[in-house]
Amino acid sequence: MPETEAQLDEQGRAVVRVKDKSTGHKYTELVHVVDGNPDAYQVLKQDAVDAAGRRLDPEFATDSPAPSGQKATTEKESN
Amino acid sequence: MAAPLRPASNATFGKKNWIFVPTIAAQAAPTVAEITGASSLDFTNIAFASTGKPDQSTNRVTAERRLGDTIVYEQIGVTNYTGGDMVYQFDPTAAALANGRKGWEKFGAGVSGYLVERMGIAQATTPITGNKVNVYPVTFGPSLPTEAGDGETAETAAKCTYAITGAPSFDVAVV
After folding, report:
1. Nearest one of B159, B175, B172 to B88, comparing CA atoms
2. When comparing pLDDT for A76 and B124, which is higher?
């Protein structure tokens, strides 16, 4: 069970603000999803929804890996 | 003259995945961790075949005729990316977090994220760096319990509408 008190989203479902341990992103997730996989999340003491119950936008980790360069094939298109 | 090239076919029957990813930092460079994270859901075998897939329609419009024009031509107009109705398996008798509730717990009013489509690779193959995917930013409407099929084939389901809320990214590599 998350340490932070859950809030209700637009559909009346209990949500909390979490940090995804695999990506570092912070977003709002359902309480029982977090409970079902507690090792994947760090529950944050932050609001999960706004005053109208809308889920707050995610916050992205700043140390996400840079995209790898895509190399063109050396095969010619026509013979 | 040499024979014109004929690219090899890559069948998608059994070789397509649809994955809902709640957060992607860089849409043109989704990461393996984001796509396979705990909050992502591969709904390839949860959504029914009747689910509406993302689509695109581009207007062909006739150019404005001038006084002296005796011939008018077409030009490309507005392109509209459209979502659809997702019809997915939902078992109201299933316990929370059970497979029968994965879709119901993931999709619904106010939920935003990305639909990631991967084609041409066996669906049981976990996404890895280098896989090419299409990414659609979406928002869902409310879910409604319903049935899929009819009569002898009917089974419990739910449906919700999703909208494409931004420019998709096509043929981008997973990093």
Report:
1. B159
2. B124
Q: How far apart are CA B19 and CA A18, in angstroms?
A: 21
Strand (E) or helix (H) holding A31: helix A31-36
User: Is residue A10 very low, low, confident or very high in pLDDT (cuts 50, 70, 90)?
Assistant: confident
- Out of B25, B31, B105, the one facing A33 most closely (by C-beta) is B105
The token duo for B74 is: 């077409």
The answer to whether B83 and B161 are in contact (CB under 8 A) is yes
Do A54 and B110 make contact, defined as CB atoms within 8 angstroms? yes
Residue A35: Cβ-neighbour burial (10 angstroms; 0-12, 13-18, 19+): middle
CB-side neighbour CA atoms (13 Å) of B91: 11
- ipTM of this complex prediction, to 2 decimal places: 0.71
| Smallest Cα distance from B110 to chain A, Å | 6
